[in-house]
Amino acid sequence: MATAIITEAGDAICANLVSGLGGTIPKYLAWGTGSTAFSKSSTALSAEATTTNDPGYARATATVTLSTTTYTNDTDNFVGTLTAGAAITITEAALFDALTVGNCFEGASFTGVALATNDSIQFTFQTVFD
User: Fold this and answer.
1) Is residue 97 left, alpha or beta, with left meaning phi > 0 and alpha meaning psi from -120 to 50?
2) pLDDT band at 113, cuts 50/70/90?
């Protein structure tokens, strides 16, 4: 289990949504094969698997729910599944506010998970506001 990092753009997304002045819910899940560690200043995955560079891969729309960690409804849960179109080793995942490109809300790097064609990974991002 990797610890996700909310990015600088993620902070701005939260501020926009809370203020009511704009913003889009970051519910689009992407994965990648990069080797650069995810950080607070990351704006994208280091090597996102996309339909352009890895045919068969596209972002998934996560299901968003609330749960309780410490206080009622203090946790956002983003759950989505991505399926491999071919053999690939996944080393990173992130949430964006758009189906393509967009702002990176949060993400994580992790030890590679080798997948065969049609294997899938269900990702769960939990953002706790405490």
Assistant:
1) alpha
2) very high
Residues contacting residue 119 through CB under 8 Å, at least 6 positions apart: 83, 84
Give how far Cα 44 sits from Cα of 9, 95, 117, Å.
Answer: 10, 9, 25
Show the tokens assigned to 24: 């889009």
The set of residues, in sequence order, having a beta carbon less than 8 Å from that of 53 and lying 6+ positions away, is none
pLDDT in tens, 38-52: 999 999 999 999 866
10 Å Cβ neighbour count for 106? 24
Say what percent of the chain tops pLDDT 70. 95
Residue 30 token pair: 């992407």
pTM over 0.90: yes
Residues contacting 19, CB < 8 A, separation 6+: none
Strands (E), the chain: 5-6, 28-32, 60-61, 63-67, 75-83, 88-96, 104-115, 120-128
Q: Amino acid letter at 48?
A: E
